[in-house]
Amino acid sequence: MRLANKVAIVTGSGSGIGRASALLFAREGADVVVVDIDEKDAAQTAEDARQSGGSALVLQADVSNQISCASIVAKTIEAYGRVDILFNNAGVSSFKPVVETDEAEIDFVLGTNVKSVFFLSQATIPHMKRQGSGSIINTASITGIVGAPGMAAYATSKGAIITLTRTMALEHAEDGIRVNCICPASIDTRMLRQALGRMTDPDYARSQNIKRHPLGRLGTPEDIAYFALFLASDESSFVTGGTHVVDGGALIARGWRE
Known about the structure:
With 258 residues, the chain is α/β, with parallel strands linked by helices. 48% of the residues lie in helices and 15% in strands. The protein has a single domain (7-187, 221-246), classed as 3-Layer(aba) Sandwich (Rossmann fold), CATH 3.40.50.720. Strands 3-2-1-4-5-6-7 form a 7-stranded parallel beta sheet, sandwiched between helices.
């Protein structure tokens, strides 16, 4: 099994990409720490992970808070004695242009999407350094590469994650710690469905979204989970600092079929 004897923290693992990744990691032999602000969702993911034969610890937490992040890592070490994989996946979206985005929304989006990566990595890295190894994976977005009109705070947060990923990769390569980020396009998650549901014509919005992907479909949480598995495993031992686009061709096809 690719992650046998490894311990993985996965944030935002009550649903979507985080849930798919936590379940896949467990099937591949990892002990999984399921972190989500929704305790009920996290508990369900953990139960499903155990059904597949894996070990899972449930932690309800607000990952935008530094004390909460330190507690997540401390409880992981207490339970398992080590942490090999940190998948900073928790995130929120925002659909407003710059001039309509108030301070509270900026704080919420940057707190959840960026401060969580900073604080959890900050708490995890000393343990990985003592081990001499570790893999940190961050969920960014293609919007962090090219921007997204009407999603100012979200795009800003994802761009920050990309730069933070590169910085941490350089700072900790000599410690044996690899740091990478994944940049999805539209993934068929509860968050996306809720966003499309707020549109005037949700079915039309979904069809237009699909058209932006040359492969002709939205991504699935499992599409991202399998790439995260590669980055978490020793098979990617020469991969660090990468901005890995997993988007069905959407980035290279911007303007295609417009």
